[in-house]
Amino acid sequence: MTRKEKVMEGAAYWGAYYRQNIDKFVEDYLHVRLKKFQRILLNMMFWSTIFVLIACRGLGKTFISAIYCVVRCTLYPGTKICIASGTRGQA
């Protein structure tokens, strides 16, 4: 087995592992420590086809959404993210 094949096999192994353990990817790769509820929200965002988060101020809705977008685009190359807002200033 050549070095390139070993690297590709390792990348496939770790890619599959991190796709199943999103919160570990955020900790290991992005070096971001998440709270327990953020881990649950992040996993729900990945495994649900429809996800709605209604939360009060200061809970980090934008932060968890940004983490989701970064992780999704990293683990699933070719993912397209569309950001929409009510007004141009909010975009």
Largest sheet: none
Helical proportion, percent range: 55-70%
**Number of H- or I-type helical stretches:** 4
Q: In sequence order, what are the helices and strands, one letter per element?
A: HHHH
Broad structural category: mainly alpha
Question: Using only CA atoms, what is the Rg?
Answer: 16 Å
Rounded mean pLDDT score: 90
Terminus-to-terminus distance: 49 Å
Folded structure, characterized:
There is one protein chain. The protein has four helices and no strands. The protein has 91 residues and is mostly helical. The longest helix has 18 residues.
Highlighted features:
mainly alpha, single chain, 91 residues, 57% helix, 4 helices
Helix and strand topology:
Blueprint: H1 3-20, H2 22-28, H3 36-47, H4 61-75
Helix pairs in contact: 3-4
Give a brief outline of the structure:
With 91 residues, the protein is mainly α. Helix content is 57%, strand content 0%.
